[in-house]
Amino acid sequence: MSATTPVISATGLYTPPESISNAELVTSFNTYVERFNAAYAAEIAAGTVAELQPSSVEFIEKASGIKARHVISKAPILDPEIMAPRWAERPNEEISVLAEIGVKAAEDALARAGRAAADVDAVLCAASNMQRAYPAMAIEIQQELGIEGFGFDMNVACSSATFGIQTAADYVRAGHARSVLVVSPEVCSGHLNWRDRDSHFIFGDVATAVLVEAEDLAPRPHWEIVGTRLKTVFSNNIRNNFGFLNRATPDTAGAADKLFVQEGRKVFKEVVPMVATMIVEEAQRLGLEPAALRRLWLHQANQGMNRLISQRVLGHEASEDESPTVLDTYGNTSSAGSIIAFHLNSADLAPGDTGLICSFGAGYSAGTVFVRKVG
Fold first, then answer.
1. Where does residue 126 rank: exposed (0-12), middle (13-18), buried (19+ CB within 10 A)?
2. Which of 8, 52, 57, 89 is the most exposed place for a label (fewest CB within 10 A)?
3. DSSP character at residue 335
């Protein structure tokens, strides 16, 4: 390797202290359903309003594999009269919520690498759910950490972190930067419709950070970035219309259209073969045998999707060791999911072991980052 070979020096994680179990979520949702059906009993009987159906712990776990999720605003989400996160709006002089959790994840990554913020050249805030349009969240994180250089935001939905890693790696290869933080603060609870039976259980909140550096700077052990590949194919099957041109709140008419919506069966059918084929083809291009990959750190969206993708890549149903899951306790955390899986399940690999960080989601978007441990 050379001085311009990009590596992952360290990763960082911030987990909100509050968590919502499926049982808590179902109790709240079913209370809302009961109240709604009682309030609209006449309209339901007349056929002008559809009766809402209750949820259950069994339904959620069978549909997704999720058992709990961390959030930054638990009580309002579980309040049947609100069912959305709420926090006090902060003045411009105070750090924003998204930047705050991003900074905590970044500080964790820097500490693990033994690196000072002054050593970092750039900050990429790569996430699905930006708190505002501008100034960039990345620049606020940069300011809070005391980093010189530059920062910018990027959004490729659930693939934002892997797209960010390739961008950071390209900066290192080109000599434009030697140390880049890719920060993914995901407050997914804000765009989720907690009153939709088919999706109210999906998302959680978290923040991750990945420190990408030139190989000669990196501590040992670290992870050589063997190769990356990105892919996008337009689809409306996962969509969120909220934004400054299409504003709504959970309390206004038509708000459901401005929150997360998906055609889950279509997503499953279309994304699984696309991602599996992409992984196999890129591994072969890099001279790697897909079945010999030591570990797959896949996007934590759905247990069934991960099982099928890993099976098509490895040629057999993956064990928990080969394809670890954090979905059960974190839920879907959008771009942060595969990074959490890597962060929590990579220290045990031996030097020379090769693995894959992979994301996929709305867009459609997909990103692969093949890595090799260097002792």
1. buried
2. 89
3. G
In this predicted structure, the answer to whether residue 250 has a pLDDT above a threshold of 60 is no
**Taking the alpha carbons of 151, 152, 158, 162 in that order, is the dihedral positive or negative?**
negative
- pLDDT of residue 150 exceeding 90, the answer is yes
pLDDT at 244 over 90: no
Enumerate residues 6+ apart whose C-beta is below 8 A from 366.
159, 230, 231, 232, 271, 274, 275, 278, 358, 359, 360
Burial 66-101 (b: 16+ CB within 10 A, else e): bbbbbbbbbebbbebebbbbeeeeeeeeeebbbbbb
Q: Model confidence at 254, in pLDDT bands (50, 70, 90)?
A: very low
pLDDT at 243: 76
Query: 């595969």: which residue's tokens?
Result: 338
Q: How many CA atoms lie within 13 A of 246 on its CB side?
A: 11
Q: Which of 59, 32, 6 lies closest to 371, judged by CA?
A: 6
For 94, left (φ over 0), alpha (ψ -120 to 50), or beta? beta
pTM above 0.85, yes or no: yes
pLDDT at position 259, please?
84
CATH number for the domain running over 223-374: 3.40.47.10
Nearest-angstrom CA–CA distance, 63 and 183: 30
Residues in CB range of 185: below 8 A, 6 or more apart: 14, 98, 99, 101, 102, 105, 125, 127, 137, 207, 336
- The secondary structure of residue 149, as a DSSP letter, is S
CA dihedral 95, 101, 102, 107 (to 10 degrees): 100
CA angle (40, 43, 48) in 5-degree steps: 130
| Catalytically annotated residues | 158
Domain ranges of the chain: 223-374
DSSP 8-state symbol, 257? G
Dist CA 236 CA 230 (whole Å): 19
Q: How do residues 275-321 score in pLDDT, each as one tens digit?
A: 999 999 999 999 999 999 999 999 998 899 999 999 999 999 999 99
pLDDT of 167 strictly over 80: yes
